[in-house]
Design goal:
heterodimer; A: 279 residues; Rossmann fold; 6-stranded parallel beta sheet; elongated; B: 211 residues; mainly alpha; 8 helices; 82% helix; 0% strand; extended
């Protein structure tokens, strides 16, 4: 057999197999168990140790591409937070079209199921440009930083929750950030979490995972949800398997397929090198 | 003409000195109020600067369409979408029913599909480039395989405990490398900022670098 042909498999076969690997689990779920990582457990603990009635500031800084990874984190957080009677205040700094509507949809659907009221137990403050300036201002004056309105341009003073939450410094107990880059944890640490000594946790797309480990090791970031896997683990911890868990089977098959092609490509590479050395 | 280049440099220098002064010297409430006011100015400036984006986009694509440059049809489509969406946004509001329908069913789906295509390219690129050519490539390939298995539940089924290996790779060798990169980048950014504040770096105002 001409083994070095394995180096030159038509790319269309690879693409076709990727599609198959993503489609198969939709019809025949594998239902593989998901082990909980230390980082995910730390996120869960950061929320769990909050006393009832605490306020969690959520910054949902996602774009459309990463939304499927990050949105399930919001649902799981909302479930855990509302079960503890914590309040959620949401903002967005990355994408005006995605962050606020997704926050509204995902936190809103959990709130509805759990009987939590908008403006009383949670609120969506919407999107603001210039994240770092807004963050700095929010430390002392959330109303001023958000120009006094929520994402529907309704006055913040009309909502009971915002009569309690005036500033991050005095009224926020945990900062939960889901991000795809900038603004990210670096900004939140520099301008908010470190100066005010507020705990910071959250999740990000898996591509950012490697760049954030040093913050976890230093204790500046209390745990971390890494991509869809992190979301799935968090869903399991809060006892609400959702979109994160359902995406895990596709991720399993996709990763296995890449590894299979890596093996095939390397067999072809060595066969080709051997042929050349003989010639 | 000279002032056109010097004025931004003066504004940057004065603003930077003021911010540093009020940040690092304790002026009490006055200092806090000045910094808070500056943050508000910064927010307003960003909103105005944000307008430049659509203006430049329209200028560029309008030029492409009127001069019938190659692929001008794409530019025409961009203009139509920009205008239509702006009108919808203006009439329906940023969270109106129609606006949200467009965002959820068109914008997010298209962007998500484009992003999802990365999966195909990554798969094909990994197949073509990850070869055991030398020691470095072998380390890279092995790390990649361990992390891929660690990130998917099936990995734990094949090799029990592999997710711990993945966590170790990320938290020990990876953290060490990333800290080095970040420290280097931070020092570089600091040096670059000092050059901009002192007016030594002028390429951003259309001038040449002084030193």
């Amino acid at each position: 057999m001409d083994w070095d042909k394995l180096q030159r498999i038509d790319v269309r076969w690879i693409y076709a197999l990727v599609i198959v690997c993503l489609l198969v689990p939709m019809f025949w779920p594998l239902g593989l168990p998901i082990t909980i990582s230390e980082n995910t457990r730390k996120v869960w603990e950061a929320v769990d140790k909050l006393p009832p009635g605490s306020v969690i500031l959520v910054s949902h800084d996602t774009g459309p591409g990463n939304a499927p990874e990050l949105n399930p984190m919001l649902s799981a957080l909302a479930k855990q937070a509302f079960e503890k009677n914590c309040k959620i205040v949401g903002v967005a700094f990355f994408d005006q079209l995605v962050g606020p509507p997704m926050f509204q949809e995902y936190v809103g659907s959990v709130a509805e199921k759990m009987g939590k009221k908008y403006g009383v137990d949670w609120i969506n403050l919407g999107f603001r440009l210039n994240a770092t300036a807004t963050m700095r201002q929010m430390c002392d004056d959330i109303h001023g930083a958000m120009l006094g309105v929520d994402w529907e341009n309704k006055s913040l003073s009309d909502f009971p929750i915002m009569n309690e939450v005036k500033s991050i410094k005095d009224d926020v107990d945990l900062i939960f950030v889901t991000t795809v880059g900038t603004p990210g944890y670096g900004d939140w640490m520099t301008y908010v979490a470190e100066p005010l000594k507020k705990p910071l946790t959250g999740g990000a797309s898996l591509t950012m995972y490697s760049g954030l480990q040093q913050y976890i090791r230093s204790g500046q970031l209390q745990g971390f949800l890494g991509g869809l896997r992190g979301a799935a683990e968090y869903e399991q911890l809060v006892g609400a398997p959702g979109k994160g868990c359902s995406g895990m089977d596709a991720q399993s098959l996709g990763h296995m397929m890449i590894i299979a092609f890596l093996i095939l490509g390397n067999i072809g590479y060595f066969a080709s090198a051997r042929k050349k050395s003989r010639a | 003409m000279q002032l056109r280049r010097q004025l931004p440099l003066i504004v940057v220098f004065v603003t930077a000195v003021l911010v540093m002064l009020f940040k690092f010297v304790n002026f009490g409430e006055t200092g806090k109020n000045v910094l808070s006011q500056m943050d508000k100015w910064s927010q307003v400036t960003s909103i105005v600067a944000f307008l430049l984006g659509p203006i430049n986009l329209i200028r560029l694509h309008l030029g492409n369409v009127t001069k019938r440059r190659p692929r001008w049809v794409h530019s025409a489509l961009t203009l139509v979408v920009t205008v239509v969406f702006t009108i919808v946004f203006a009439l329906n509001g940023s969270n109106g029913e129609v606006t949200l329908w467009i965002i959820n069913n068109i914008a997010i789906q298209i962007s998500g599909a484009i992003y999802a295509m990365l999966g195909f390219y990554i798969c094909s690129a990994a197949y073509r480039s990850f070869k055991l050519r030398n020691l470095e490539a072998t380390v890279l390939l092995l790390s990649a395989v361990i992390l891929m298995l660690a990130q998917a539940p099936i990995g734990e089924e094949i090799i029990p405990g592999i997710s711990k290996w993945g966590e170790w790779i990320l938290s020990v060798p990876n953290s060490a490398g990333m800290r080095g990169i970040r420290l280097g980048a931070a020092i570089g950014a600091f040096a670059a900022s000092i050059r901009v504040i002192l007016g030594l770096e002028r390429s951003w105002v259309g001038g040449s670098t002084a030193e």
